[in-house]
TrEMBL record:
Domain Thioredoxin: 42-251
Protein name: Disulfide bond formation protein DsbA
Organism this protein belongs to: Pseudanabaena frigida
Segments forming a coiled coil: none
InterPro entries on file: DSBA-like_thioredoxin_dom, Thioredoxin-like_sf, Thioredoxin_domain
PROSITE patterns named among the record's database cross-references: PROKAR_LIPOPROTEIN, THIOREDOXIN_2
Keywords from the UniProt entry: Disulfide bond, Oxidoreductase, Redox-active center, Signal
Pfam family, one: DSBA
Signal sequence annotation: 1-22
UniProt lineage: Bacteria, Bacillati, Cyanobacteriota, Cyanophyceae, Pseudanabaenales
Length: 253
């Protein structure tokens, strides 16, 4: 007879209890050894592979549902009040802040560098209508310079030079590294001592982490990703698609 998931869980729990404590009448030798425990668990898995698969799939579905619910909740809040995305983040473009485009990006991501050129052209044409806000989403597992670059740009923001530094990072992406970060700080006439203190500070790391967590709550899985007045999409856009979306928002669609 195939074990039901709850029965399998109970059995594994029982094995855990047996290995962690013995009754007052038992000696330590009566407990299962690590190898015995492993053998029994493997035996359960071999005899009930579908139960394990069902349990994993059930967990994954529950996790996906929770993530979707959180994403819908956050997007709903942003649709009602787009300015929520502006908090403590670098912004450029329209001062009216009626249409807000948040870009979740990684300075070492090649697709983000391509998107940067598109967004820059789009903003040049629509700066009176759209407010652009940059959100850090460094993919540290695959991009070694993503976080150091983000921290450096945050430090530049403290001296009012985020967008100039941001442009340099994307437009000279192949140069990312310590030497380049310092070189750009000097090129932009930043106070280098302050720049170094700021990028190594706990505040800088907390700011990057906050952006990253916001991105995760919105369902960001890769870069670049965008949110425009509560409309989420990912991948490098083109200028026409962005302008069409802005036109729809203006029309109240």
């Amino acid at each position: 007879m195939r074990l039901q998931p709850y029965l399998l869980s109970a059995l594994v729990a029982l094995l855990l209890i047996v290995t962690s404590c013995a009754s007052s009448g038992q000696s330590a030798s009566a407990q299962l050894s690590d190898s015995q425990f492993e053998t029994k668990v493997l035996e359960i898995i071999r005899k009930n592979p579908q139960v394990i698969l069902d349990s994993v799939q059930s967990y994954q579905r529950a996790q996906a549902q929770q993530e979707e619910q959180l994403r819908d909740k956050v997007l709903s809040q942003i649709r009602q009040e787009p300015r929520l995305l502006l908090r403590n983040s670098p912004v450029t473009g329209s001062a009216s802040q009626k249409i807000i485009m948040a870009e979740f990006s990684d300075f070492e991501c090649p697709y983000c560098a391509k998107a940067h050129a598109v967004v820059k052209e789009f903003m040049a044409r629509n700066q009176n209508d759209v407010t652009l806000v940059y959100k850090h989403f460094p993919l540290t597992e695959i991009h070694a310079q993503a976080e150091p670059a983000a921290l450096a740009s945050w430090a530049a923001m403290q001296q009012g030079k985020f967008w100039e530094y941001h442009d340099a990072l994307f437009e000279q992406q192949s140069k990312l590294g310590e030497e380049f970060y310092l070189e750009q700080a000097k090129t932009l006439n930043l106070d280098v001592d302050r720049f170094n203190r700021d990028r190594k500070s706990a505040e800088a790391k907390a700011a990057i982490k906050k952006d990253f967590e916001l991105g995760k709550s919105l369902g960001v899985r890769g870069t670049p990703s965008f949110v425009v007045n509560g409309v989420f999409f990912s991948g490098a856009p083109n200028v026409k698609d962005l302008e069409d979306l802005v036109a729809q928002i203006k029309a109240g669609k």
